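question for whoever is on the cluster today: can someone run the full assembly for these? two chains, 149 residues total. i dont have access anymore since they changed the login thing
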Amino acid sequence: MYMKKPFDPMEMTQYKFPVLPTYPKLAHAYVPFQYMKNVYNPMEGLARGTIFPELDRPYGMDPEYTVDA
Amino acid sequence: MDSARERLLNELMAADFTLIDLNLYLNTHPYDQRAISLFNSNVQRAKALRQNFERLYGPLTPMTQSKCPWQWIEDPWPWQ
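^ ran it for u. tokens below:
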């Protein structure tokens, strides 16, 4: 039985969220939680469009998500 | 626009962009101390770069103090 836990700021400081809930519900959409790692320097970030390497996925790099390649 | 001016403006744009991206990240990660530290040090850096640019080349926005004559209308414009 799912019980909603009260908001606990200390838990938030740890960011111990799993990528997906232990029991994902059907017909619910989930977004994996981001954890900041190293970031690009400012000049590189401006050129790439993001300072987060994990979000740096230019359109067309992955054939699976490219419709007009 | 001379190249030193352009380089400084590029550095400032990059510093501002880093702040925008960290701003977005912190909206959803308000307890990330490391991201806040990074944000704060970048605020200092962007502020220093902006002050340096405006001291050398005049105002970037019409929201700063001006010498006489009114500096905002001085060439070159940002697209020149």
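summary bc i know u wont read the tokens: Chain B has two helices and no strands. Chain B has a mean pLDDT of 93.
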